[in-house]
Design a protein that fits this description.
Blueprint: H1 2-25, E1 41-48, E2 51-60, E3 71-75, H2 86-94, E4 98-102, H3 119-132, E5 138-143, H4 145-156, E6 161-167, H5 184-192, H6 196-203, H7 216-222, H8 230-246, E7 260-265, H9 280-285, H10 289-299, E8 304-308, H11 315-318, H12 320-332
Parallel strand pairs: 3-4, 3-5, 5-6, 6-7, 7-8
Antiparallel strand pairs: 1-2, 2-4
């Protein structure tokens, strides 16, 4: 009887995943127009270098019984879009929060212009979106590159930032001091060489153990490789890599004036540009998130540090229950 139940469960899972896999396997254009996000997508027009561009975002209302007047903004990492926040969006909505999840210009369903990208500009775009939506103050959650952006947002707009949550942010050290410099053209050519296998191998470094559920976040970027739009995607990826490399926030953590929580998966060893480092000793010396988390918490006035053992770069996917508990505990603090 138990084997029959397992078989039914297995085939039910396959039937659930087949439509998703079919959606991902088709070739996706530069703005993922054939990929359905977990919640309705809207668009907001922003101006960069004198031209208008579409910024995609999800605006998810509170669904829980105890509606909270607070709004939470979730900022994605470099190799992702807002879609990978789907579990966290659902959780926060059920807890009574309104949740805003933008795709930054250059990512996801947003336009990907060939412009000079800056965290200042992306923070400005995000704030313009929030003001457009009538949101004057918000808690900002940033993962990976989104942590750098969230930090810049809080530095630029402390009056609009209620609290700041940094989830395994990159930029906790200055990559310029130990990662070899690459020109935009070199970075662009590297992006053009991407394959589904190379993307998967990189994503496997994010987790302590690989699970089939993680494959969606590999297939989504891989689905763009065969598109005629892929050079546009690749150029945006190169330009935003340069933004990360050239615009550190590590020297400004002490200037943050809002309540901050750091959530750090302890097995994370992410280094932006690690593959360009030939000196193995430098690789071993950097990307040490247990140490970087403690150093950063020490630099930020009154920061709270949550250390998640046996968890990698993306706690909200690998350990959602732990991440969500830390998140809501901090949100409820006065």
């Amino acid at each position: 009887m138990r084997n029959i139940f397992k078989s039914i469960l297995f085939f039910s899972l396959i039937l659930y995943l087949l439509p998703l896999r079919a959606q991902l396997l088709q070739v996706q254009d530069a703005t993922l127009s054939g990929y359905k996000y977990p919640f309705a997508v809207k668009y907001f027009e922003v101006s960069m270098e004198g031209s208008p561009y579409k910024m995609a975002y999800m605006d998810v209302a509170a669904s829980g019984k105890n509606a909270n007047p607070e709004t939470i903004v979730l900022l994605h990492g470099k190799n992702f879009s807002g879609a990978y926040w789907k579990q966290t969006i659902s959780y926060l909505s059920e807890q009574g929060y309104r949740v805003i999840v933008p795709d930054q210009i250059g990512f996801g369903k947003s336009d990907k212009p060939e412009v000079y990208y800056t965290f200042h500009q992306l923070a400005h775009n995000t704030n313009a979106l929030l003001l457009h939506l009538g949101i004057k103050k918000t808690t900002v959650v940033g993962h990976s590159m989104g942590g750098m952006l969230a930090t810049r947002f809080a530095l630029l707009y402390p009056e609009q930032t209620h609290k700041l949550i940094l989830e395994n942010p990159i930029g906790l050290e200055d990559y310029r001091t130990f990662v070899p410099y690459k020109t935009i053209e070199e970075l662009y050519q590297e992006e053009l060489k991407r394959t589904e296998a190379s993307i998967r191998n990189y994503h496997k470094t994010y987790y302590t153990a690989w699970k089939p559920a993680y494959d969606e976040w590999v297939q989504l970027p891989a689905s763009q490789i065969a598109s005629k739009d892929y050079p546009v995607v690749a150029k945006a990826a190169a330009l935003t890599y340069a933004m990360i490399f050239q615009q550190p926030v590590v020297y400004e953590f002490s200037q943050l004036k809002v309540p901050v929580m750091l959530v750090i998966g302890q097995t994370d060893r992410t280094i932006v540009g690690k593959g360009y480092i030939k000196d193995k000793q430098k690789v071993e010396q950097h990307g040490q998130y247990p140490l970087l988390g403690q150093q950063t918490a020490g630099a930020i006035p009154n920061a709270k540090l949550i250390e998640l053992s046996q968890i990698g770069h993306i706690p909200h996917i690998e350990a959602p229950a732990q991440f969500h508990k830390a998140l809501t505990d901090f949100l409820k603090q006065n």
